[in-house]
TrEMBL record, chain A:
Keywords for this protein: Membrane, Transmembrane, Transmembrane helix
UniProt entry tagged with the keyword Iron: no
Top-level taxon: Bacteria
Keyword field contains Transmembrane helix: yes
Official protein name in the record: Quinol:cytochrome c oxidoreductase quinone-binding subunit 2
Chain segments annotated as transmembrane: 26-46, 58-80, 101-118, 170-192, 222-241, 253-274, 295-317, 337-358, 365-383, 410-430
TrEMBL record, chain B:
Xref: InterPro entries: ActD
Protein name: DUF3341 domain-containing protein
Signal peptide: none
Keywords assigned: Membrane, Transmembrane, Transmembrane helix
Positions of transmembrane segments: 57-81, 101-125
Length: 454, 184
């Protein structure tokens, strides 16, 4: 900085819009692609071919959760920006809000997880519960225990040697699962839509004032709890439950670390591309990239810290149920992949991001942010996919008894699912970016942010 | 009658605010001085670039200090628990794949060595501790920790001249300009 101080004369009164023909073209193409692939995906998931559906269900949960972390991370950075009363990020706050505002639309991709024909391939505990239901047991046990069926589900589970499921019944039951599923989408949707509406309303207000600032700050406090509950328990319900006997208390934090890291990567890429396209020129400076780069660095370290803590405790404690997760991933090719993950998700970006000059160069940082995202794909692939061959060996023994660690050619489904959700995500993200001004041009702290130095 | 010999340290000029100091620093930088410094009661954002300071080599020292810590911890743990006296805990392997067990120690020593390198590297680069500084001879300099902003240009600077430097400091808004002399 120091060369030119940004004043209110530099900020257009009506703000800046995204007027890029390239962006609208990309939006159109990705929207059409996603619609087409979505139809194909629904056919694969719900169609007549069980083999396709079973394999594709795992591809689907991988792709959905990957983009879920990005959108949830956008909500997180918006909330954190408001609640920490931060001045530096006002210039990039709208990008965070737009990233978060993709969240509600992810329901279009996540809802198959709530359909029994998809669930039966993914969540073995649901199959057991449904079997109990079929035998006349209740939906769940608790203070309303057994109101539906003739026998208690808990007793049924214990009689059928599902002791773990009987113990976990208070959390793992179908009613609670659907209530939580609804909560994930209703709760955070209301939060991010409310905050975005509050923020956007300021752009055209002749007397912007500070009231919105304080309101956003107040409403971001308790809603951070909604965010934390959403990512933690969605991680439990959709990923950890792929193997109901496995559990890790670090799981929610682990997913959060990846979400915060990679949504920041998306924010960095968006800012850099918008600036290349001629937007945000006045308000986003190398200082902002430096700060965002430092956050990227911090969460790279945080991810490694959490990932290692999870591994270390499980590895040393050697409890059978806990070690399952790493046992599967330390077998065959997955073992190599896990070791490469340590090297390329942590060591390489750690050393590269140590350098201050790199964090101040938008394009250099963008390259690193793209790299981080690729590693996040790798991370989530290793979270979801190794369960596939294990589960399908149990579910389809006649077909998959011989398969050891991976199912041949199943990765084509992974790519297809990733493209489906990814193009949909891109469409809704570009749509959100084009709907409103690209930065809060009437925010009282915009000039503070534009002139930030650190 | 005093017979003490004195040596000229340089000029000390006071500025009335942080922003005046900032702008003056940019002008001194542009005039090409190299041996000079700013003194302010509190840190001023961006003053380092206004002074044209180069980046400190401290980060590099810390990087190698930290790496030494990592390697020390790894060698100690690996040497003692794998090579010299293989220690089997919970049926874990005793080879290079034992390394996760050493990560906490490697992490701790990285932090410890980095911390020490920061502290001692900083002291060395600032040539501290020292008993005295020539600027303490100035009667007004103690206000640098209270309410005054100073620029000191040293006589050792190749661009220094008794008249021109004084004129420069006056031009850029310096007041109470004082020629500081240290006792030999």
């Amino acid at each position: 900085m120091a060369s030119h101080i940004v004043t209110s004369a530099d900020i257009p009164a009506q703000g800046e819009r995204l007027n890029s023909p390239l962006a609208s073209k990309v939006k159109l193409i990705s929207g059409a692609t996603s619609l087409l692939l979505w139809l194909v995906s629904m056919f694969l998931l719900l169609g007549p071919n069980d083999t396709w559906a079973a394999n594709y269900a795992y591809s689907w949960v991988f792709a959905v959760f990957f983009f879920f972390t990005l959108a949830v991370g956008g909500c997180f950075w918006t909330l954190l920006h408001n609640v920490s009363n931060s001045g530096w990020g006002t210039s990039v706050r709208r990008v965070m809000e737009n990233l978060g505002s993709v969240y509600p639309f992810l329901f279009l991709f996540a809802f198959p997880l709530a359909l029994p024909p998809v669930q039966k391939w993914l969540y073995e505990w649901m199959n057991i519960h449904r079997e109990g239901l079929h035998d006349g047991a209740g939906l769940f046990d608790g203070f309303l225990g057994g109101f539906y069926g003739s026998t208690s589900l808990k007793e049924w589970l214990e009689a059928h040697h599902h002791g773990l499921l009987a113990n976990k019944l208070w959390y793992m039951n179908l009613v609670a699962w659907y209530v939580r599923f609804a909560f994930y989408f209703v709760g955070l949707t209301l939060v991010i839509r409310g905050l975005r509406k509050l923020s956007v309303g300021q752009d055209s207000d002749p007397n912007p004032g500070t009231s919105r600032l304080f309101r956003a700050r107040f409403h971001s406090t308790y809603t951070l709890i909604i965010f934390a509950i959403t990512i933690t328990f969605a991680g439990f319900d959709w990923l950890m439950a792929l193997d109901f006997s496995w559990f890790s208390t670090m799981w929610g934090v682990y997913l959060f670390a990846g979400a915060a890291l990679n949504s920041m990567a998306v924010i960095i890429i968006t800012c850099a591309l918008l600036q290349r396209g001629g937007n945000l020129k006045r308000v986003v400076t190398p200082e902002h990239y430096h700060i965002m780069g430092k956050l990227l660095f911090a969460f790279t370290v945080f991810w490694a810290y959490i990932a290692f803590s999870q591994f270390f405790l499980i590895w040393y404690a050697n409890v059978t149920e806990e070690t399952k997760y790493f046992l599967i991933r330390n077998t065959g090719g997955w073992n190599t992949a896990m070791m490469l993950l340590v090297l390329f998700h942590f060591v390489v970006p750690f050393v590269v991001l140590l350098q201050a000059w790199l964090k101040k160069k938008p394009m250099a940082l963008t390259v690193l942010a793209v790299y981080t995202l690729v590693m996040h794909v790798f991370d989530h692939y290793l979270i979801s996919i190794p369960e596939r061959s294990i589960s399908l060996m149990n579910l389809m023994p006649e077909k998959y008894a011989h398969v050891q660690t991976t199912i041949p050619n199943a990765f084509w489904g992974d790519i297809l699912a990733f493209l489906t959700v990814g193009t949909g995500f891109l469409f809704f993200y570009l749509r959100a970016l084009g709907q409103n001004n690209l930065y809060p041009n009437r925010d009282p702290r915009l000039l503070e942010s534009a002139n930030v130095s650190n | 009658m005093s017979t003490t010999r004195k040596r000229v340290y340089g000029y000390l000029a006071e500025f009335k605010s942080a922003s005046a100091l900032y702008k003056a620093a940019e002008k001194v930088r542009d005039a090409g001085f190299s041996k000079w410094d700013c003194h302010s009661p509190y840190p001023i954002h961006g003053l380092d670039s206004a002074m044209g300071l180069k980046r400190s080599i401290l980060p590099w020292l810390v990087f190698f200090g930290g790496s030494t810590g990592t390697l020390t911890a790894f060698s100690l743990a690996y040497g003692t628990q794998v090579l010299l006296y293989p220690t089997v805990v919970q049926a874990k392997p005793v080879n290079i794949f034992t390394v996760p067990a050493f990560f906490p120690v490697m992490f701790e020593l990285t932090i410890l060595f980095s911390g020490f390198t920061v502290l001692f590297g900083l002291l060395a680069l600032m040539k501290l501790p020292r008993f005295n500084h020539p600027l303490f001879a100035s009667k007004q300099f103690h206000r640098a920790t209270d309410d005054a902003f100073f620029i000191a240009i040293e006589a050792r600077d190749p661009k220094f001249s008794p008249e021109a430097t004084k004129a420069l400091l006056e031009n850029i808004g310096g007041t109470n300009i004082e020629l500081v002399e240290e006792e030999d």
